Amino acid sequence: MATTSVKLDEDLKRRIQHLAETKQRSAHWIMCEAIRHYVACEEKKEALKQDALNAWETYQENSMHLTLEEADAWLAKLEAGEDAEIPKCHD
Known about the structure:
Elements: H1 10-23, H2 27-62, H3 68-79
């Protein structure tokens, strides 16, 4: 494990300490959890962005797509617990 320094304003430092006391954890644990959560969320956002860019690129190459209605109908079946096949894309 590596050590890193972070400068915090007094208000944030006080809030972290208060939360740590409330949760019966250390301020260090609270900060590590916050950073882990932030990094995981940002990684998921970046992966979603890359998926969207790849899908857009593929669409531009072949114009294959589903309509909103087709996608909604498929998702509704999945929500209802049905074993629904992914609809075929078309141009």
